[in-house]
Amino acid sequence: MPKKIVSFTLSEKSIKQLDKTSKALGMSRSELVEFLVKKGFDFPEDVKAAISEISELQTEAKDKFKKRRWLDAR
């Protein structure tokens, strides 16, 4: 899967911990962050199902708002 560049802010303390840990493990910052994110997003199946349902509802609501804006603009 192709990778994407993302940007976020961290405290100086978190950056130092990230650098220290990634160096000790022989990983880049990016590799460590990806590993931690994957590990941190390991939810039980019922939670995954709820997240998926919420995501679908958000998409439906977004589509309805877009459609309504388009109809109101006519």
Task: Please tell me about this protein's structure.
- The chain has 74 residues and is an all-alpha fold.
- It has two domains: 10-42, no CATH class; 43-74.
- Helix content is 73%, strand content 0%.
- It is built from three helices and no strands.
- The protein has helices at residues 12-25, 29-40, 45-72.
- Helix 1 (12-25) packs across helix 2.
- It is elongated and about 60 Å long.
- The protein starts with 11 loop residues before the first helix and ends with a helix.
- The model has no long low-confidence stretch (mean pLDDT 90).
β content, as a range?
Answer: under 5%
Total count of helical runs of at least 4 residues: 3
Helical content (DSSP H or I, runs of 4+): over 70%
Q: What integer value in Å does the Rg equal?
A: 19 Å
Number of domains: 2
Please describe the biggest sheet, giving its number of strands, its sense, and whether it closes into a barrel.
none
**Quantity of strands, as a count:** 0
Tell the overall outline: elongated
Mean pLDDT over all positions: 90
Quickly give the structural class: mainly alpha
- Helices and strands, in order, run as HHH
Q: Any low-confidence stretches, pLDDT <50, length ≥5?
A: none
Distance between the termini: 41 Å
